[in-house]
């Protein structure tokens, strides 16, 4: 997606070989027109699947998620992240490890909102090791629903998440794929 | 806003005299068409102020915030909540107490994204005691910018936040105002 690639070029800040900061349009300040275009692009790529729900995770997934849900005219659900949790019968829980923050979170979704037969599109802002996407997919499958695909705004293609998700049988569509952040610059795949 | 009031009537769950659960369209599952209408309504009410930024707080403020920002064609910034924080020079920090969770959080906004002269519209999903809205307003003022108004999706008008914000000189526009949750039912103001 050219518009997004330009934005990454112009405003992305390479903090290390692993970390790209895009807090001017995606992770803290958000560009609503760009988010709407992201929603349209995911809709274009996944519309043949008769998506019934978009699922994302707080917080940076919500803006691209709601724009995709608007375009597809289906509800958005966002999973919540929590440090630890009293077990409850009415929620799905999965453990997700964050390599960036070096901590585990539990992600939760109320059982009310994903049902057997649902066709769920997972949307997230970043894909690196795939931990969050796998956690969301496991929740969909716990619910007896189907993951029709995974839409990612920015994939760090030098990390293994995209490959692992594809090998597990998921269709992954990343709007921008980054091959490397070495030498302080962004190289696209 | 009639559409929103109907939704509260049909899907809101009164958990106690203080707590209304609206997780089927606002706090966990989100209705994107309703969120777009919320964005249009806030735009209608505040457009004469030449808003340059919309400011909200993660996570449930992001969907109404991005739709408002889209309609106004300005960036959205969402404040992050954190338990405690190493002081840093590049962020504004305010302490916010949550009566619901009975804990304090620090809310933060990068100094890059609010500048002197900005006209900031604060948007949030709920207004109860006003702690979050006051915290966001203090951040705007720390930045030397102006709060042009506060747009609230659902105000619990039996709690003091709305009155306190108005007394402090802020213009508060709540799309739905709830007078009481007593006897297990929602009474609108």
UniProtKB/TrEMBL annotation, chains A, B:
Tell me the Gene3D superfamilies matching this sequence: 3.40.50.2020
Functional description taken from the UniProt entry: Converts the preformed base xanthine, a product of nucleic acid breakdown, to xanthosine 5'-monophosphate (XMP), so it can be reused for RNA or DNA synthesis.
Domain Phosphoribosyltransferase intervals: 43-157
Q: In which pathway does it act?
A: Purine metabolism; XMP biosynthesis via salvage pathway; XMP from xanthine: step 1/1
Organism, as annotated = Paenibacillus campinasensis
The entry's family comment says: Belongs to the purine/pyrimidine phosphoribosyltransferase family. Xpt subfamily.
This protein's encoding gene: xpt
Q: What is this protein called?
A: Xanthine phosphoribosyltransferase
Keywords, comma-separated and alphabetical: Cytoplasm, Glycosyltransferase, Purine salvage, Transferase
The GO terms describing molecular function are: xanthine phosphoribosyltransferase activity
The record lists xanthine as bound by 20, 27, 156
Per the record, its GO cellular-component terms are:
cytoplasm
List its EC numbers.
2.4.2.22
**Any GO BP:** purine ribonucleoside salvage
Please write the reaction equations for the catalytic activity of this protein: XMP + diphosphate = xanthine + 5-phospho-alpha-D-ribose 1-diphosphate
Q: Which residues bind 5-phospho-alpha-D-ribose 1-diphosphate?
A: 128-132
Answer yes or no on keyword Transferase: yes
